[in-house]
């Protein structure tokens, strides 16, 4: 899991990212572009993901529902969906808390839209990268209190601080964590996770789910897919996944 990014405004502005682009022989790239029937840019992106044959390209770009893993392969998925359905039945406020990068924001947007379409009472909170970083802070606690939140769902973020978890639990808030980062701290310990009564969905910690490379928004989509299935809802809103 990433550390909190509590940068000052000046430090954040001065942050420099150095991108290292994988290079390919121009003739090889031209050949693959012709083989794939795609532009050189698209072909480069495919090759970067080790999608290097026409068959793999076709499956990746034209995937079907049958190619997608069952979301209920995640060990806690059934319990998570049932808790969300309970929130719907009881008209409880759900707050979705996401990371401030494009992965987290996309996943939050997708879940919020989907749950609202199903009639659930949903709000969201995305922390300020510069002033808040990642973690439970006073602003978030005030946000949850004002909305009388009863269910807290993370997207692309874990909470590994026991004190932060207890702050939420002592406020009568149940916690569902969806993430894709390698876990450290208390979430490494399945027994402690059970003791704290937290439900997690994470491909890195699942012993069954096959795809360990899901993005944070990808995990959010798996949750949405499972909810749609249990609600028996029309899945036309799943087209939003192509934005993730």
Automatic annotation (TrEMBL):
Database matches in InterPro entries: DDH_dom (IPR001667), DHH_sf (IPR038763), SSDNA_exonuclease_RecJ (IPR051673)
Positions in coiled-coil regions: none
SUPFAM superfamilies hit by this protein: DHH phosphoesterases
Residue ranges of every copy of the DDH domain listed in the record: 93-236
Molecular function (Gene Ontology), one example: exonuclease activity
Superkingdom: Bacteria
Pfam families per the UniProt record, alphabetical: DHH (PF01368)
Protein name, as recorded: DHH family protein
Species of the source: Leptotrichia hofstadii F0254
Taxon lineage: Bacteria, Fusobacteriati, Fusobacteriota, Fusobacteriia, Fusobacteriales
């Amino acid at each position: 899991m990433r550390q909190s990014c509590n940068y000052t405004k000046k430090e954040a502005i001065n942050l420099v990212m150095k991108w290292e682009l994988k290079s390919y022989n121009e003739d090889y790239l031209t050949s693959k572009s012709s083989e794939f029937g795609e532009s050189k840019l698209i072909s480069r992106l495919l090759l970067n993901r080790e999608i290097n044959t026409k068959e793999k390209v076709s499956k990746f770009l034209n995937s079907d529902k049958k190619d997608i893993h069952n979301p209920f392969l995640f060990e806690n998925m059934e319990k998570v969906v049932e808790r969300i359905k309970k929130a719907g039945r009881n008209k409880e406020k759900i707050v979705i808390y996401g990371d401030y990068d494009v992965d987290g924001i996309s996943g939050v947007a997708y879940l919020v839209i989907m749950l609202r379409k199903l009639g659930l009472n949903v709000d969201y909170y995305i922390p300020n990268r510069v002033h808040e970083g990642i973690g439970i802070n006073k602003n978030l606690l005030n946000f949850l209190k004002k909305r009388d939140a009863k269910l807290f769902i993370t997207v692309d973020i874990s909470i590994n601080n026991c004190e932060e978890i207890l702050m939420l639990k002592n406020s009568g808030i149940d916690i569902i964590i969806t993430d894709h980062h390698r876990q450290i701290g208390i979430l490494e310990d399945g027994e402690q996770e059970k003791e704290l009564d937290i439900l997690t969905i994470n491909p890195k910690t699942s012993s069954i789910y096959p795809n360990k490379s899901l993005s944070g928004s990808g995990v959010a989509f798996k949750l949405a897919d499972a909810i749609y299935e249990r609600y028996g809802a029309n899945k036309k809103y799943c087209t939003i996944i192509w934005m993730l």
